Amino acid sequence: MNATNEHTDRVVIDNVSKEFEIDVGKERQHVQALQDVSFSVREGEIVALTGLSGCGKTTLLRIIMGLEKATSGQIAVGGNVVTGCGYDRGLVFQHAELFPWRTALQNVEFGLEVKGVAKKERRAIAREKLELVGLGNAMDRRPNQLSGGMKQRVGLARALSIDPQVLLMDEPFGALDAQTREGLQAEVLRIHQETNKTIMFVTHDLDEAVLLADRVILMASHPGRVDRVFDIPIARPRTDVLAVRGSKEFADLRYEIWHALMADVHAGGGAAATAGAGGQR
């Protein structure tokens, strides 16, 4: 894929395909998870990946992170081809997966320890990132003393602590209650405003996609591929979340994506993802 704005592209996904086999009874079944996926993400842009369950969203994110390898095609971050995990990418999982014996501060420090950062410096960075995500008063708490939303904030601070070029998030708020989820969405908008990080995230929540993203990439399934790309021209900063959600522009964009998603359902995507099409998990 030839990027038209190569100097501003932070992530370039070039004809990525992913195949694997699964056991079905006594037979091996071939699965084409992704087929010829190509698009790029600009510096400082927020891009949402959405689509029916099984369309390969999380698989693609894991390949970008370096946790899985593509069968064919390649991904470049900052002009460097991805061959494995690296400090230029940080990943926030759906569940924070914190070390239970470590405090919030020590959990955020972990990636910096692995990176070889000196103790005094990594402690200062971890404190700074916990302050950034609003946990300045909870640094010494262990995971069993944190709410679900606070754990996700720690996970976000941990990913940001290594100062990645790209922040990847795999349904980071999907397991949280609606009120906590909306609060963290507002936090992501604030953090993006302060850091201008390039962000890619997977979501089934169309409200979340339209609220946060500059572009929403709708993926089709069987095999996973790019179906449509929707520009979200809502002006930034979007700090007044209630005003954004209540605007006609927001409603129209959400309906346009929902309508395209429903077309996939009726075309054979299945009813299993209807909940996601309605903006719920």
Describe the structure.
With 281 residues, the chain is of the alpha/beta class. The protein has two domains: 42-68 and 77-88 and 166-277, P-loop containing nucleotide triphosphate hydrolases (Rossmann fold); 98-163, no CATH class. It is built from nine helices and ten strands. It has helices at residues 57-65, 104-115, 119-132, 148-161, 178-195, 206-212, 241-245, 248-269, 274-277; strands at 9-24, 27-42, 46-51, 72-77, 80-81, 89-92, 166-170, 198-202, 215-220, 225-231. Strand 7 (166-170), helix 5 (178-195) and strand 8 (198-202) form a beta-alpha-beta unit. Helix 2 runs parallel beside helix 4 (148-161), helix 3 packs across helix 4 and helix 6 (206-212) packs across helix 8 (248-269). Mean pLDDT is 89; it is low at 1-6 and 271-281.
Topology summary:
Blueprint: E1 9-24, E2 27-42, E3 46-51, H1 57-65, E4 72-77, E5 80-81, E6 89-92, H2 104-115, H3 119-132, H4 148-161, E7 166-170, H5 178-195, E8 198-202, H6 206-212, E9 215-220, E10 225-231, H7 241-245, H8 248-269, H9 274-277
Parallel strand pairs: 3-8, 3-9, 6-7, 7-8
Antiparallel strand pairs: 1-2, 1-4, 4-5, 9-10
Helix pairs in contact: 2-3, 2-4, 3-4, 6-8
Through-space gap between termini: 33 Å
**Strand count, sense and closure of the main sheet?**
6 strands, mixed
Gross CATH architecture of the largest domain: 3-Layer(aba) Sandwich
Q: Give the overall average pLDDT.
A: 89
Q: Based on helices, strands and strand pairing, what is the structural class?
A: alpha/beta
Q: Oligomer, anyone? A: single chain
The strand line-up of the biggest sheet is 6-7-8-3-9-10
Number of domains: 2
The arrangement of helices and strands along the chain is: EEEHEEEHHHEHEHEEHHH
Rg value: 19 Å
Shape: globular
Number of helices: 9
